[in-house]
């Protein structure tokens, strides 16, 4: 069963989420503050976390940063903060998606399912010939879902990996913003271009020799992105 950690200090929201998730056969843990969330995440190893940013003891962004220090678990932010800057801050810290309050339960559950799917190991796939892509500065092992730069593994979140994988499998070809959003986040996405800006910046920071002058992750302004070896 998929285990969900719900982090929110509003009891009515926690109750609604717990009831709806358990009805769909999820296992659910709940925390009302950031410290409890971090402890539960370490103890229970959830498959996905639903996290409110407005917690009583610390900002949710700090919880995300704390989790990303050791975990790649998908994080779905649930918050009353609506501004683009605040969404980008949460995504930049390592969140995988962002839902604003008030929210529709069906939409939240669909986004949660999508986050879990992105974190699942790939089954099947390409031939052995295309399993490892050498970009010079780094190598991408598509079969093992690993990236090596120099003599070390590069740690990517599930969303970062999925974005990288789509681009690498289309090496040399322009992938439109809409296609990337729909392949990585799901079919209901198409306009959340700030997600792409944030995650492309993260991939460049982790993999490019000079992130400010990328050689591999190329932006085609207003259109999309292209991966070059």
TrEMBL record:
One GO term of the biological process aspect: positive regulation of DNA-templated transcription
GO molecular function, one term: phosphorelay response regulator activity
Keyword Disulfide bond: no
Main subcellular location: cytoplasm
Role summary: Member of the two-component regulatory system KdpD/KdpE involved in the regulation of the kdp operon. Upon phosphorylation by KdpD, functions as a transcription regulator by direct binding to promoter regions of target genes to positively regulate their expression.
Source domain of life: Bacteria
PROSITE patterns reported for this sequence: OMPR_PHOB, RESPONSE_REGULATORY
N-terminal signal peptide: none
Stored PANTHER family: KDP OPERON TRANSCRIPTIONAL REGULATORY PROTEIN KDPE, REGULATOR OF RPOS
OmpR/PhoB-type domain boundaries: 130-229
Modified residues (4-aspartylphosphate): 52
UniProt cross-references to InterPro entries, sorted A to Z: CheY-like_superfamily (IPR011006), OmpR/PhoB-type_DNA-bd (IPR001867), Sig_transdc_resp-reg_receiver (IPR001789), WalR-like (IPR039420), WH-like_DNA-bd_sf (IPR036388)
Domain Response regulatory, first and last residues per copy: 3-116
Subcellular location: Cytoplasm
UniProt KW keywords: Cytoplasm, DNA-binding, Phosphoprotein, Transcription, Transcription regulation, Two-component regulatory system
DNA-binding segment(s): 130-229
SMART domains: REC (SM00448), Trans_reg_C (SM00862)
GO cellular component, one term: cytosol
Protein name (record): Transcriptional regulatory protein KdpE
Keyword Acyltransferase belongs to the record: no
Pfam families: Response_reg, Trans_reg_C
Organism in which the protein naturally occurs: Streptomyces boluensis
């Amino acid at each position: 069963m998929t285990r969900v950690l719900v982090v929110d200090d509003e009891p009515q929201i926690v109750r609604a989420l717990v009831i709806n998730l358990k009805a769909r056969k999820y296992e659910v843990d709940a925390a009302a503050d950031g410290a409890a969330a971090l402890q539960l995440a370490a103890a229970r190893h959830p498959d996905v976390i639903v996290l409110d940013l407005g917690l009583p003891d610390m900002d949710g962004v700090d919880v995300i940063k704390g989790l990303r220090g050791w975990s790649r678990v998908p994080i779905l932010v649930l918050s009353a903060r609506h501004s683009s800057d605040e969404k980008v801050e949460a995504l930049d810290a390592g969140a995988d998606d962002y839902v604003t309050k008030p929210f529709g339960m069906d939409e939240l559950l669909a986004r949660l399912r999508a986050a879990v799917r992105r974190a699942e190991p790939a089954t099947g796939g390409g031939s052995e010939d295309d399993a490892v892509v050498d970009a010079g500065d780094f190598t991408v092992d598509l079969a093992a879902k690993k990236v090596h730069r120099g003599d070390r593994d590069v740690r990517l979140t599930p969303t970062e990996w999925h974005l990288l994988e789509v681009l690498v499998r289309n090496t040399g070809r322009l992938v439109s913003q809409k296609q990337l959003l729909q392949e990585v986040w799901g079919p209901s996405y198409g306009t959340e271009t700030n997600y792409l800006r944030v995650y492309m910046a993260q991939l460049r920071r982790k993999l490019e020799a000079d992130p400010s002058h990328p050689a591999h992750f190329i932006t085609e302004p207003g259109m999309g992105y292209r991966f070059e070896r």
